[in-house]
Amino acid sequence: MIRSRKIGEVELIQVVEFIGPTHDLDWMLPGIPRSAFDANALWLEPNFWMARTNRLVFAMQLWLLKARDRAILIDTGVGNGKKRTSRHQTMINTPALDWLAAIGAPPDKITHVVHTHLHGDHIGWNTRDDGGRWVPTFPNATYFAPADDWTAFKTQHDAGTLGVHDAPFVDSVLPIADAGLLHFFSPCEEIADCLLPSAAPGHTLGQVTFTFRHAGEHCIFSADVLHSPMQVLFPKINSRWCERPDAARRTRLALIEEAARTGATVYPAHAPGVEGWHIVRQADAFAVRIGDARATAIRALAVAGVPAPMSMPLPKTIGG
What we know:
By secondary structure, the chain is α+β, with helices and mostly antiparallel strands.
């Protein structure tokens, strides 16, 4: 699946490997009450949550910034033919490379591959199977990884303690390093003359977000800081996969505050659509607008006796 929009003369393209209700709400976002989702079901379904199964809808995807002289991938999804612990991600087979070719960005034309972090669903298309060997998919690109994530993952890999993240690291990161294509960056080091990384620790130690400013627009590719728009209303609630919970909460709130203050368009890594999220301050809390949808925390939750998570005040309703 391909979606796109123009930012000046640059094309922002979303290449979706698959999208669907994959993660149980209570498991993935423990702490957000089901009643909050029920109260917002009209705009959450079907793009972000499915009530019948109580599952969050996630997209596994690649973002592409395509300009005249550059083709920049931001994260590379799950990839084909890779054994993973998730039943939704293991040994999938999609025509993602055909789709890239169809939009004028075949593998040999990709100039940069940048990573927000090194989890397996963000690095999969780094490599492809070549007769039983994992080889770089984008041979003419420079691959960029956050230095802190590389150090943490490599240290744990060497110690045998990387767990479920080890197989993706072995088949999708180490071959790039062995090929001499992997470069490491620190926050605030601009990449490809257009992407500025900012430290966003919590989900992983070295996770970053990327800011892209062009043609009067301000975009933030927000990695896995946000997995659901409901986290804008409940910013202290982490996903199950956040490795450093306190840091993740601080990072999320800082991102939300920045987006509300600057009017930036936010692109979460697993969110469908190219319209992005627009976050607005609402008294002492925040709300999110996605296209024409307006997310609100309903005051009736308090009447129903649903406590705010971790003593956070309930967001108020947007008027209009």
